[in-house]
């Protein structure tokens, strides 16, 4: 599967997007190109591409809808490049007027793909719960205007961005300092945040770092709007948690649309999360953590594996287990580790993506099913969750220092013909070897 392309690029001529394809290939988003709609339809029918990047104008009217139908049952995310009519824009998940930086392209494609996988996963979970006699209702979507936090010192262009957001129907709340930004973030729910990139980005980086450390704020998409022209270190900015970086020359209208695309995706995913969280009190779930119980996880993992085969998507499983060492043995004796496990389980639940399934396999062992995720990405996800938990101090009793839990991690990616049970067993064996 390593040679399978992830992105279909549709353009009239190779030189239009040739350099972008080369850069995307280097970033791990292997590409396949098509110069016509017919060639594109064949590609999405035969290859497991996650998304399509389409030079608007290179396909006839109705072509984008044909592309989606040809990819079914896998949902094909479409990113359009260039000027678009309202009908064409509606057929795309996102439209960008100018060619974005490859890193930005990769990140947006990842966001769109995860949104599509989340929708697929919701349908799978409805089927799993229905098989156990539980109805999982459709997500209730909040119909109030998109709530966007704009943080940074007052500036003509930043104020113009707020006006563009308001003109698009969003409610923009301005915070001039990091302190006021966090006051707002703790007082109300936001669908997205835009941080004004000052000359050293220090205030924006401070806010981003604080949000990354907070499990409630972690998933809010962040956009950095640069003030000065230049070549920022995009890798560093994306690693710090930004979902998008708008260059200084980006118009306020386009920046607003990109922010709102992130906001709409976030709100939908939050709606899915609320719908899934609504059944946390079900008898099918683990009573202490609200995570999937062992038996329910086994049933759902089988359904995910079957769906991955039908849609030709990857599937990885992670196992996280409390280590058997002297420190943990000491806190087990007093029952303090047992008291901490519900909080650890709750943290795992908040830190996973909407489309990921978290379960409690035993008193001190958790498992994650990560659809459309390869081994490397799954390990990063599991290690990130373990790192956040390792930063939390748990009570060890009177006159004793708090303790931390550094979970051991095992990861396995499903191979062709492998059973779900064998996949989970491989991940468990890795934990024992850690």
TrEMBL record:
PROSITE patterns to which the protein is assigned, alphabetical: GGDEF
* Gene3D superfamilies assigned to the protein according to its UniProt record, in alphabetical order: 3.30.70.270
Q: Is Cytoplasm set as a keyword in this record?
A: no
Alphabetized UniProt keyword annotations? Nucleotidyltransferase, Transferase
Which SMART domains has this protein been placed in? GGDEF
Q: What sequence ranges are listed for the domain GGDEF?
A: 313-434
Check the record and name the SUPFAM superfamilies matching this protein: Nucleotide cyclase (SSF55073)
Q: Which domain of life is it from?
A: Bacteria
One term of GO molecular function: diguanylate cyclase activity
Q: What is its EC number?
A: 2.7.7.65
This one is known as Diguanylate cyclase
Organism of provenance = Brevundimonas olei
**Organism classification:** Bacteria, Pseudomonadati, Pseudomonadota, Alphaproteobacteria, Caulobacterales
